[in-house]
Amino acid sequence: AQTVTQSQPEMSVQEAETVTLSCTYDTSESNYYLFWYKQPPSRQMILVIRQEAYKQQNATENRFSVNFQKAAKSFSLKISDSQLGDTAMYFCAFMKHEGGSEKLVFGKGTKLTVNP
Amino acid sequence: DAGVTQSPTHLIKTRGQQVTLRCSPKSGHDTVSWYQQALGQGPQFIFQYYEEEERQRGNFPDRFSGHQFPNYSSELNVNALLLGDSALYLCASSFGQGVYYEQYFGPGTRLTVT
Q: How far apart are CA B76 and CA B30, in angstroms?
């Protein structure tokens, strides 16, 4: 069974600094997608970044980038120049392809607080 | 372009009652997935609807059922509510089957069972 583990329940960072959130996953599939979602207090789950497993190049979206280590099954999120608006729960998710459809398997999340 | 919408925003029910939650997908999307997010946890997959049929189901009892309408909107029904059903229920929409497209989430419905 696919599992997603986020080992850091809570993290904090000073505004303008860099923080890295960790995620490991377990799968026997060779091609899959990984995602980081952000969930602010408003509850809306927002896609931050996506990584396709067959692509060796790490995905980047503005201040957000990932370090994807396929052999180690590791998928960490780096947030550069942290902003107060980055304060939120961050969920790592694996997209599982099953029976012709897809579902997301989420980790338990990391609560990130950006301090002024 | 309207995103995923859900109604109601929150509601309170009593044990044993039944509840219906509603979701309208993002424009152009034809697939709807439902997730349950307990407090302090990540979302758990309930089921997915495509072409008005349930395509995949997570580890949830038959008390959880759903429906998809011809306009792609969807309902989640929960019968015989238990205290443990208290959670945030998220709807996510996407396009197509068998392809790895992002799922776009709605704001959720907060259900409290007393």
A: 16
